[in-house]
UniProtKB/TrEMBL annotation:
Residues 17-316 form the DUS-like FMN-binding domain. FMN binds at residues 19-21, 72, 141, 173, 213-215, 235-236. It catalyses: 5,6-dihydrouridine(20a) in tRNA + NAD(+) = uridine(20a) in tRNA + NADH + H(+); 5,6-dihydrouridine(20) in tRNA + NADP(+) = uridine(20) in tRNA + NADPH + H(+); 5,6-dihydrouridine(20) in tRNA + NAD(+) = uridine(20) in tRNA + NADH + H(+); 5,6-dihydrouridine(20a) in tRNA + NADP(+) = uridine(20a) in tRNA + NADPH + H(+). This is tRNA-dihydrouridine(20/20a) synthase. Catalyzes the synthesis of 5,6-dihydrouridine (D), a modified base found in the D-loop of most tRNAs, via the reduction of the C5-C6 double bond in target uridines. Specifically modifies U20 and U20a in tRNAs. It comes from Stanieria cyanosphaera (strain ATCC 29371 / PCC 7437). The record marks 99, 185, 188 as: Interacts with tRNA. The lineage of its organism: Bacteria, Bacillati, Cyanobacteriota, Cyanophyceae, Pleurocapsales.
Amino acid sequence: MSHSNHLQTNIGNPLSIAPMMERTDRHFRYLMRQITRRTLLYTEMITTAAIIHGDRHKLLDFSLEEKPLVLQLGGDHPQELAQCAKIGEDWGYDAVNLNVGCPSPRVQNGNFGACLMAQPELVATAVAKMQDAVSIPVTVKHRIGIDERDRYEDLAQFVQIVAEAGCRHFIVHARKAWLKGLSPKENRNIPPLRYQDVHRLKQEFPHLLIEINGGIITLEQIKEQLNYVDAVMIGRAAYDDPYLFATVDRDIYQQSATPPTRHQVVEAMLPYIDYWTKKGLKLHGISRHMLQLFAGQPGTKAWKRYISENAHLMDADSIVISNALAKVPS
């Protein structure tokens, strides 16, 4: 199978929102689509075991509005990863991504996530099998290193081996992970950022698509990074301040659309909220993702307080959100 078509699909997507556990579910993604149509979105990491043995509709369903959308898989068994990549493609995902960056102990016990950086040949085998199973792009998200394997040369060797298996798109979290001694939360903050390693990777592998992740929180920083790499992935900043993305369709993608106001974003969510609450979803399942929509704005405290006090009530629906919105100056 020619991998040149793989490359085309991802070019032209300079910006993405990182897969985040307990965060990037379908309701958060739908919210983000009211703010940016173009930014590439990801699922939470889903393990191969969950997909093979679990409730696929619950795990994999999404609204068409969420596209373009990437399925992120966690696992270390090449055949199972290939099977799940195929399921993802059949489900309608635009690409599938292998997690080689998550440092949580639960993930290590399953021998996947960041500890796979110590086994580049296994990752390469998995990527090759996944690519044989699907025609959508297969991408890898990883760290710059783990534990004592954290020289630039180790990183370059990992990328070289996995690229030889046909992977063309690498998303590099510019921090190493300590598998022992740091919690996942500490691993997001404590190891220092080494952007220069990711920039060097792009220089030395110009034919690969290199995307940078880690600590980037403003539009200015995104634009600055795009001078050195092909794409930027934003993690927690997207959750802490979703409206950060309001102008990216215009400023990054050169679209002529007028950015929506925060009030318009909330109003666009109301029919969606009623659709889901009528189906039995608790309002909190959607409203929790909306709490930070007015981050840094007058009225944000009143907005958050009203939702927090009312979202869990029986039969809470879009009226709660409308009432909360009335407390925010437009």
